[in-house]
Amino acid sequence: MVTFFVAIGLLFSGCTLLINSLLPNEYEVLESNWDIYLPKADEKKNLLTTDASFQGDGEWFALFDYSKPIDFSNTGLIKLTSNEISDANNKIAQFIKKTIDIRQNSKEIVDIFNQYDVEAEVGDYYYYGEHHNGNDFIILLYKSELHQLYKYEWHQ
Predict the structure, then answer these.
(1) What region does 77 belong to: left with phi over 0, alpha with psi -120 to 50, or beta?
(2) What is the pTM of this model?
(3) Which of 35, 49, 57, 95 is most buried, with most CB under 10 Å away?
(4) Could you give the count of Cα atoms lying within 13 Å of 24 in the half-sphere of its Cβ?
(5) CA nearest to 144, candidates 61, 76, 36, 69
(6) Is 64:41 a contact under the CB 8 Å cutoff?
């Protein structure tokens, strides 16, 4: 009987690994959905995720840590000047407000955004893209001095 449960456990583990290997990883999704090519981060933290829904709706906020600077020449991100700072920070603020509103002012969500209160500065790298009249959008902000990339993604 124990052998049966071990066999079932191994079969389940193998199926899970197979399914996960067939699903596109986050970098492949960025490439196919947004035409963004990023190097693999040393560490990634999902700060806010939405449980999977049938339609793929949700909000995601993630932090990618890199040990060294990224070459952004082929990524689609732009180096921010003083002219773009306000727009970048407004887009991030809109994401935060919409997320807090849709999550009904959840203390947990508010605390996450307070803990990771990030603002764009001159010399940082930035990307904004949208689909479906703005119902789906992504914001990427790379903090140059920290070698950290923040990803804000919205699908409704």
Answers:
(1) beta
(2) 0.82
(3) 95
(4) 8
(5) 69
(6) yes
